[in-house]
Design brief:
Largest sheet: 4 strands, mixed
Order of helices and strands: HHHHEEEHEHHHHHHHHHHHHHHHHHHHHH
Number of helices: 26
Number of strands: 4
Strand order of the largest sheet: 3-2-1-4
Shape: flat
Strand content: 5-15%
Distance between the termini: 15 Å
Radius of gyration: 30 Å
Length: about 575
């Protein structure tokens, strides 16, 4: 029963001791609750004076032991699954905790015994050295301590910080040197998209000004409960209205929610600001802030930028959410990025659609009392060269309103498309053989050269003599191809499930499918672990030790394994 209480608190991320008082701790209070309904627990507490040393197993030392034993059982299950999978990938990321200590989370991606893709948190440890070599040594140490063979590492994935992705002194290169074989590096696709979006928005001063205004608007209402309540009461009158959202400093794709909140409630926000101006007891500083915000919001630059970015941000947000899915494989991820580039290219080349967007913004602005033409002429009028340079002013180019905004939007789209294309080309260098091999539908004949390139991606610990028989491998793939055509399978996941059923007679084809699915797409699992860390180690639990944090993080992040643990075996151990 005590083990079960520990398991419940751990899986829910709840504190054991609460305010620090042992007697009033969550653990003890749950024990007392059970004792009021369980004669066994009641007798255990009442008869403690008759036992040696008055043992109750309710102390913090006993709690730590319970947590450790449960965490050991969870880790054993993960290690067993990774070992059974044969090949696995490593993902890592760092973040500071509430105590300002950098924590390194190490996750592994593999195919479990049921044939499903799994990404599991393996360890959380303090990162004292954040250089490429320091992080690589820590990852290597974690793998060795957990008895995972480094010869079976197929891929590695981190964010694109120079210390992690550097080709000379980055973690990706140093881990390959420590492991003794070249481990292909896959940058986190979601992180790269986030970075590309940030750079593309910086290409236009109008878009930069849009986000600056959105940030000022959120700060204005969130800084005062009076203003917030005033806005909240107004938003309650609108169906499907949204509260203003803060602009994330690290996740630019999350800014789509901020734009949507302003877009849905734009007129109500303007009305609320104008009412605040007319309040009698409003101080001068606040009134000046409101006037500045109203002036910005009721400018045509802001309205047309809001119209444009609403579409761009939601396209990238949907793509990011798909890239962060655990079950997504790298080939489908690259295909999604390619489709997104095509969609952005169509948007960039369709001048008519852009002009229609500007026309819609003009109509909407006129309903708000904005004069788009005069606003445009006032802020973006034609600048003539001085006469000492050019005596003929008629030679100057005059840009009309639709053309000006179309040029500004193309700056954003061009930058985003170029960055995505460059990233896609770099990724294809590694995965082009895989894409060719598993291209749907399978109509092409697998070439020996292509099969050889894919087999070279296998880590040394997973290669066997059968893989050198390229003709035999091609024959297996053709048999698998025939079965896929018969059953009309059109996705890599379905093909892998079929290869699992036929892995006895098609072992190498099954291993090739496993290799593709083992490649990580993003480090979203590490980010999810850090989100859980904020719950496990919060400001009320800031003095938590490293071992206890590691064990609780492992339990909280792997609830399904924790629920399946046989507590009787844990008690015996």
């Amino acid at each position: 029963m005590l083990f079960d209480i520990s398991r419940t608190l751990a899986r829910q991320g709840l504190a054991y001791r609460g305010d620090g008082d042992e007697q009033n701790s969550n653990f003890n209070q749950i024990v007392l609750l059970l004792s009021r309904h369980s004669p066994v627990m009641k007798r255990w507490l009442e008869e403690k004076s008759f036992r040696n040393h008055k043992t109750t197993y309710l102390s913090h030392d006993s709690q730590n032991e319970f947590i450790k034993l449960l965490a050991d059982d969870v880790k054993k299950k993960i290690i067993k699954d990774v070992t059974h999978a044969g090949i696995y990938s490593v993902m890592a990321d760092t973040t500071p905790d509430i105590s300002r200590n950098d924590q390194l989370s190490v996750c592994v991606r593999y195919i479990d015994s049921l044939g499903d893709v799994s990404e599991r948190l393996l360890d959380v440890c303090q990162a004292k050295d954040k250089t490429g070599l320091g992080v690589a040594e820590k990852i290597y140490e974690v793998l060795v301590e957990n008895s995972l063979p480094v010869d079976n590492i197929a891929f590695q994935s981190y964010d694109y910080a120079s210390s992690m992705s550097g080709r000379i002194n980055g973690t990706q290169q140093k881990l390959s040197e420590l492991a003794g074989h070249m481990i292909p590096f896959i940058p986190c696709q979601a992180h790269r998209l986030n970075t590309f979006l940030e750079h593309s928005c910086d290409a236009s001063i109008l878009i930069c000004d849009l986000f600056s205004t959105l940030e000022n608007l959120y700060v204005f209402f969130s800084a005062s409960t009076k203003r917030h309540i005033h806005l909240k009461s107004k938003l309650a009158t609108i169906e499907n209205s949204l509260q203003l959202r803060n602009l994330s400093k690290t996740r630019w794709t999350a800014r789509a929610e901020s734009i949507k909140a302003v877009w849905v409630s734009f007129e109500i926000i303007i009305e609320t600001l104008q009412e605040i101006i007319n309040l009698q007891n409003m101080d001068k500083n606040t009134r000046n802030q409101v006037l500045g915000l109203v002036k910005k919001l009721l400018s045509f630059d802001f309205v047309v930028s809001l119209f444009f970015m609403k579409n761009i941000m939601y396209k990238t947000k949907i793509l990011t959410e798909k890239l962060e899915a655990t079950e997504l494989n790298i080939l489908d991820a690259l295909m999604l990025i390619d489709y997104s580039i095509s969609s952005l290219n169509e948007m960039n080349s369709d001048d008519t659609a852009t002009n229609n967007l500007v026309s819609s913004a003009i109509t909407f602005s006129e309903q708000l009392g904005i004069d788009p033409v005069s606003d445009f002429n006032r802020h973006h009028r034609k600048r003539l060269l001085p006469k000492r340079i050019d005596q003929n002013p008629n030679t100057q180019c005059s840009i009309d309103l639709p053309t000006f905004y179309r040029v500004e939007f193309k700056k954003v789209l061009n930058t985003l498309i170029v960055l995505l294309n460059e990233h896609l080309k770099k990724s294809l260098v590694t995965f082009e053989p895989m894409i060719t091999l598993f291209k749907m539908p399978w109509k092409q004949i697998c070439s020996t050269e292509n099969v050889k390139k894919v087999i070279e991606l296998f880590p040394p610990g997973c290669k066997d003599f059968k893989m050198n028989d390229y003709d035999g491998v091609i024959a297996e793939l053709k048999v698998l191809d025939h079965q896929c055509n018969v059953k009309k399978l059109d996705s890599l996941t379905k093909i892998f499930k079929l290869s699992e059923d036929c892995k006895t007679c098609l072992p190498t084809a099954n291993k090739l499918c496993r290799l593709v699915l083992t490649a990580p797409v993003s480090t979203a699992s590490n980010e999810r672990a850090f989100s859980k860390q904020k719950i496990v180690k919060n400001y009320l639990r800031s003095t938590m030790g490293a071992d206890r944090l590691q064990h609780l993080m492992l339990l909280f992040s792997n609830k399904d394994i924790l629920d399946s643990i046989d507590l009787k075996s844990s008690v015996k151990s």
